[in-house]
Design a protein that fits this description.
This protein is of the alpha+beta class. It folds into 2 domains: 79 residues, Phosphorylase Kinase, domain 1 (2-Layer Sandwich), CATH 3.30.200; 193 residues, Transferase(Phosphotransferase), domain 1 (Orthogonal Bundle). 37% of the residues lie in helices and 16% in strands. The strands form 3 sheets. The protein has a 5-stranded antiparallel beta sheet, with helices on one face. Strands 6-8-9 form a 3-stranded antiparallel beta sheet. Strands 7-10 form a two-stranded antiparallel ribbon. A hairpin with a 3-residue loop joins strand 4 and strand 5. Helix 3 runs antiparallel to helix 5. It is globular, with a radius of gyration of 20 Å. One of its GO terms (biological process) is positive regulation of apoptotic process. InterPro entries: Kinase-like_dom_sf (IPR011009), Prot_kinase_dom (IPR000719), Protein_kinase_ATP_BS (IPR017441), Ser/Thr_kinase_AS (IPR008271). GO terms for molecular function: ATP binding; protein serine/threonine kinase activity.
């Protein structure tokens, strides 16, 4: 629920800024009673922004899982909306595995993926689809017990699928978005599984399977769904065949053909993987550097911009990779004029 009886300022003190973007500002804050620090997402109140915040708060209130960032409080005043979230002190997963003191193996990848899948399984059982699973939204923190813990963050694009009504939307990040999203076909929890397939591909190789020279070409590549495990740098040289099979079973154009989260957790790769041969993270480091640079010029999460494009289609999706890519690219170009919000860490 959103607190309208108390003000944010009556319970919290704002500290330094963590990030800023088109939806507002993320700042560290401290509870004046307990001294506990949180991340506060402060959004200027408009009719549209209020709808987005209410939906995000409603979604987060349904998700109580150790691998999902937790909402703590929410406020509404005359001028702004504030979401108070768990402050996650950690690194993005891909940055974590590229540290000099970290040995990346398939066994270690499986360790992280099982945690990611655990959080996704919980979401999907609640009929929630994330729709923006990507490296930046998967954080890794050191637990008090001394092992790495995964936290899934940023549910600004998440949708509740509990209604029997089919839902279509244009949102997400080109390299990780599912084909049905681009095609404006009905989305489902299987849309997240495509994204997890791309994430696994990148984690093991450092290569983005559908990356084009620009966003438009990337989106076309996704709609074609063509990929392989051949690379001139030999990125998959030390990756097992069963891991490649796992990825292939996720990157299916037809959502019904993809592994479900339950199928993934039962897959032999996640249950028998003992390969401790070190994986080369050179390409992954390049991938991280490119993503970091892109974040300075892109605001991919511009849901409102995507909705404008969707409305221009009259609720009907265009068919054909080229026209669809151009349509979504138009929305992306509009979004690129804004700065994205960096996550509270």
């Amino acid at each position: 629920m959103i607190n309208k009886d108390q003000t944010f300022e009556s319970k919290y003190e704002l500290l330094e800024e963590l990030g800023k973007g088109m939806f507002g500002t993320v700042k560290k804050c401290q509870c004046t009673d307990t001294g506990v620090e949180y991340a506060a997402k402060v959004v200027r109140k408009t009719t549209k922004n209020k709808e987005e915040v209410v939906r995000e708060v409603s979604t987060m209130n349904l998700l109580q899982h150790k691998s999902i960032a937790q909402i703590h409080d929410a406020f509404e005043s005359k001028r702004q909306m504030v979401i108070v979230m768990e402050l996650i002190r950690g690194k993005e997963l891909f940055e974590k595995v590229c540290q000099e003191d970290t040995l990346l193996t398939e066994k270690q990848c499986v360790y992280y993926l099982r945690q990611i899948l655990s959080g996704v399984e919980y979401m999907h059982k609640k009929k929630i689809v994330h729709l923006d699973l990507k490296p930046e939204n998967i954080l890794c923190i050191d637990s008090p017990q001394g092992y790495d813990e995964i936290k899934l963050i940023d549910f600004g694009l998440a949708r509740d699928l509990s209604s029997t009504k089919q839902l279509s939307c244009i949102c997400g990040t080109p390299e990780f978005v599912a084909p049905e999203v681009i095609n404006f076909d009905p989305i489902s929890v299987q849309s997240d599984m495509w994204s997890l397939g791309v994430i696994t591909y990148v984690l093991l190789s450092g290569i983005s399977p559908f990356l084009g020279d620009d966003d438009g070409e990337t989106l076309q590549n996704v709609t074609f769904g063509e990929f392989d495990f051949e690379d001139e740098d030999g990125a998959f040289e030390h990756v097992s065949e069963i891991a490649k099979e796992f990825i292939s079973d996720l990157l299916c154009l037809n959502p019904r053909d993809r592994l479900s989260v339950g199928d993934c957790l039962e897959h032999s790769w996640l249950n028998t993987q003992t390969n401790e041969e070190e994986l080369d993270t050179t390409n992954l480091k390049k991938f991280i550097a490119r993503r970091r640079w892109l974040r300075t010029i892109h605001a991919i999460k511009a849901v409102g911009r995507f909705n404008q494009v969707a409305n221009s289609l009259g609720g009907k999706g265009k068919k054909g990779g080229d026209s669809l890519a151009k349509t979504m690219l138009a929305a992306l170009n509009a979004a690129n004029k804004e700065n994205s919000i960096d996550k509270g860490r």
